[in-house]
Amino acid sequence: MKHLTYPIVCVLLFAGGCQFPDHPTVRVVSVSLAEQTDAGVRVELLIAVENPNSVSLPLKQNRYSLTLDQVGTFSFTDAANRTLPARGVQTLTMAAALATNGRDVTGTPYHVTGSISYEPPGEVRKLFTDAGVPLPAVQFSDSGRLE
Description:
single chain; about 150 residues; mainly beta; four-stranded antiparallel beta sheet; elongated
């Protein structure tokens, strides 16, 4: 049955009447030093995701990586478990923890990258999922100095 999925999807796509939602937009609102101890730091990333569509979009997975110059990199994948409301904004807080061995990291340059996957509505998306096509995702990145 899987060998028939591709032709079926092609027919559905070109039959007209199929509309895919626009991609959400993502921006990094802030990257801040939430806690610092002798052992390490906890950094919080505040991410705003905006939905330009008239339908809600379930957010499925967050993947992100934070690098602090001369300290290290923290990477994490997490289930989003949220729904982005139609024509709405959802704010996500993501945390990163890095060992610093007592070093003060205030003012240290950082670079953050990531993606948030979401599930578009409709039967065509279900066919894509059944065929093993990954969910769409929106990317984000930001650089600056840790405050």
